[in-house]
Amino acid sequence: MAAVSYMLILFLSFPFLKFISLGSAQKILCDDGHGNYTANSTYSTNLNTLLSTLSSNTQIEYGFYNFSYGQNTDTVYAIGLCRGDQQPEECRSCLNNSRVDLTERCPNQKKAIMWSDQCMLRYSNYTIFHQMETSPRYYMWNTANATDATQFNEVLGNLMKSLKDTAASGDSRRKYATAENATGLNFQTIYGLVQCTPDLSQQECTQCLDGVISEIPTCCNGKVGGRVLRPSCNIRFETYSFYGATTTLDPDPEAPPPSTNTTSSQESDNTTIIVIAVVVPTVVVVLFLICLFLYLRRLKARKNLPVKEEEEDADEDEGEIKIVESLQFNFDTIRVATADFSDSNKLGQGGFGAVYRGKLPNGEIIAVKRLSRNSGQGDTEFKNEVVLVVKLQHRNLVRLLGFCLEGRERLLVYEFVPNKSLDYFIFDPAMKAQLDWEKRYKIIRGIARGLLYLHEDSQLRIIHRDLKASNILLDQEMNPKIADFGMARLVLMDQTQANTSRIVGTYGYMAPEYAMQGHFSVKSDVFSFGVLILEIVSGQKNSGINNGENMEDLLSFAWRNWKEGKAINIVDPSLNSNSRNEMLRCIHIGLLCVQENLVDRPNMTNIMLMLNSYSLSLPIPAEPAFYMNSRTRSLPEMQSWDYNSRETGSSEPILKSAQESENEASITELYPR
Question: Structure pTM?
């Protein structure tokens, strides 16, 4: 067979995907956007263990492997999918080769994928099972053109539609189809292949393949061969046979057995008469007995029904008890770990209680929060809330490991974060030197990602209500982790409503509608986040800034200087001016977050968009919320900044009047969904 010339292109939706080519049939993507792991870490060990199992499991003979291994944030999820014509030993060999190549080329990325001719292998630190994923996608096409592109494309489209329907109707072991279609006298035969990961439903497989097939004109219009690959499905077509016979699966145990008919028509008629004569009386008797049984059962329904409900509730309670038991620490273990809650192990004191450093018998370092004893919750409510909060897992949240109940003692056990809290660095004249602008900007974005998860992406919608610098912990790489994000649920149940009579938080960070009226929402957290941004940029506490002989609160100071076109005065003098535009943009975002009217404040989705898109024009903020409510702004006198320095070639921002920017205020249609 003559050599086939191919062109390829990879469509990347995100800048953190790294593309590696190992040859014409092997392509690897290393995803830096889902975090990295280090050699000999728990995640690394779990990954190697899982991939070894994946490529050596002899119990699976149909070419689809989906396993997970590990616990909590170190859990690894992997999928291996072989082409439907691969024998089990060929499949495992392909997966094993992919395992070696993938871990060598992506040595520390927690998420990666590799496609080859015979198989696909992918893994992630987030679940990928039963998830229809459309990106990244990869195109590959033959450089040769069809003689009659119009007719070729028409025949190809019909072939792909037929294969799509066949593959989508497959069972949970395989969704795969191949076929050939003669295109007429002017063309060679077209050979086609389509495949989905069989964990997709029929509808999801159909939807995925529809999307892939619709990309053929973009990828390989009029070409005699091409491939479109996605994580959840793929297609390929050629004018030569590139696949073998589909391997045989054992009969689906859920499918009904095939029926046979070997009787003649006369025998069938006689059998029908006999069946009617026997079955009809039998059915009548059976229906009578069923009615009698239901009548007697109904008479006893009031007595039997509660018993049944109690049994079902007992089964559910037993499952919950097992979950709770796995999270509950022995009090003596925690007491010994913290040296009986000694002052030498005390890390800090907050509104909800003191925090202690501890060391478990296995050597793991933990942080223990000893809650105040004035909680209004019962033990059962408290346990249920712990189970919910433990499920919240994000790299920018401090991980809750479990709890302990002993008499009136209520302890929460967290992962230990070594670098103390943000306020320890940002407000100390000596320590703040360790936080250059790059680190500060990373901290701002990390906090925003954590809040976005709490507000929109987690199983629960959590409103923090006490977001402040001392509740932002920093790990070894100075990555921020939000702490105390479950306190409102774990301690004060009445605060989970839209209004509360018990205000918990820190003045200066509180939104005015919460501090004065007890109304809270996600926009309350946005206000606190805005104060944090201004503190991080300025290196000053929100409580007050020396302005000659007068003291001025941070929000007033920032607003006054921004309105006068002197926003650079807000920036911490210890920072160099290399990233001035980025700093000024953050001040602008911070002022948008602390506006008095909560409707005017952006949500966390829009804030992430503002932080990631430097060319997006920002709306003009209104005067921030002052508790004295001295509203003296005059919009025509205000100025806004354009931070897109690429338009001018200068590092200096451009001043524009508010009137020029009035129609640029809306970004509510820019949700990155």
Answer: 0.49
